[in-house]
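User: Before I run my own analysis I want an independent prediction to cross-check against. Here's the chain; please return only the structure tokens and, at the end, one sentence I can use as a sanity check.
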Amino acid sequence: MSNGEVEMDRARWRAGLRGVMAVIALVAATGCVSPCMEIQRAMCLCQGQTQNERSACEDVAAAQERLAPPDAAQLSQCEQLLPGCQALVADGRGCAALQTNDGRVACGVAPAP
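Assistant: Structure tokens:
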């Protein structure tokens, strides 16, 4: 491989790396989170009485997800559960619905019967 070819390969590699870094920065900036974390956020809305308590709940959930990220099957399950869980928390029953078995099943924190 000539010096020119090596330099061209390095330039391509650097360009690719810049692209990857740009995507990582974009994801970090937009706060992109997994559907499992979105479910946890919905649950955290009901966990605390104050914004600090809710933020602490989300911080713990995020730390747990970083330590043990969900696998593909878990992500798929969360994607399926997310709309129903969010709707349940947002409807008129709100957090009280999460105290029922149906509510816990809808958010994936209890097994389906």
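Sanity check: Residues 1-32 form one domain.
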